Amino acid sequence: MAHGTKRDERAGGGGGLGWAVAGLAVVAVGLSVVVVRQFVAGGGGGSGGGAGAGAGGGAVVSDAEARMLAEAALAASGEAMKNGRPEQAETLLRNAVGQRPGDQSLRLALAEALTAQRKHSEAFAEMREAMRIGPLAAQMHLDAGTLASQAGLAADAVAQYQAGQALAPQDARFPLYLGMALIRAGERSQATAALVRAVTLNPELAEAWGTLGELALAEDSLGLAKQHLDKARALQPESFKWRLAAARLAVRENNGQAAVDLLLGSPDEQLLAGPTLRVLGQAYGLLGQPAQAAALFTRAADRAGVDGQLRFEAAQWWERAGEAGKAREQAELAAKLGHAAAKDMLGRAGR
Length: 351
Description:
single chain; about 350 residues; Serine Threonine Protein Phosphatase 5, Tetratricopeptide repeat; 4 domains; two-stranded antiparallel sheet; 21 helices
């Protein structure tokens, strides 16, 4: 996460993991190895007369000592993150937050450690607390919104992107991310408005144009969908996602050959994926070529190995192509994988 907040200022503005090096220097100068080890173990440090209670429930530390221990925790947790041990970083930082709950740098670092472990709900809670502590920056709303989205908290994501947009109204990322969050929240008309704002601020946003095209396609506005998807493909000609969307549009326009031309020749991991297969199946259906669809679904089922649904769909396509033997073969394989409809198909065929 790129926060541009108090945590970066404490590191001298280095960004990334550079703050770890600065923190290590603080440890070397201000703390003994024994104190650092005590803190890592969660036992606090220092002796009487201080202002804060130790995280281990025993010793009391002064505010100055707590601040130095927090710097030690930031340094040590940074090393843990760099070495791929986010769970260790989390432990260190939770102990530090116990000593200094109002330290924004610690909260941001803890959010990062939790994110690395895919604990998105907890990371979002830490981000919100960091923002409450301040100082507040628009980028923090972007990070918090992303965490909320990853945690499945659609309403919270929308609220964070809206708040960020209020702070940075010329930043096209906020309406772009807001549009995506609104789609997940089921608010398609509001999503369209947000994405239009995004491309108004930055006409080079292929993701916004393409998503507008998909929304228009879902609304049966085929002409508008084509305009938006053409812009997305012009900006990102290598994007398979926009080619697939354009193929869907071609099918809706009853142009099966255009859809086939758009998709054939793609790598197998794209060509044989479920969404692509279904579009190609529709295209071959329009062209009156069920055997081509059947061959493609069989190839995909062979590649997947244990996908009963793909086997069943291959059987259906072979049946439409008038290839009873091949249909039966695929239906038997699907039935062995527990596909109930395939068993019914075999029953209808007298098996």
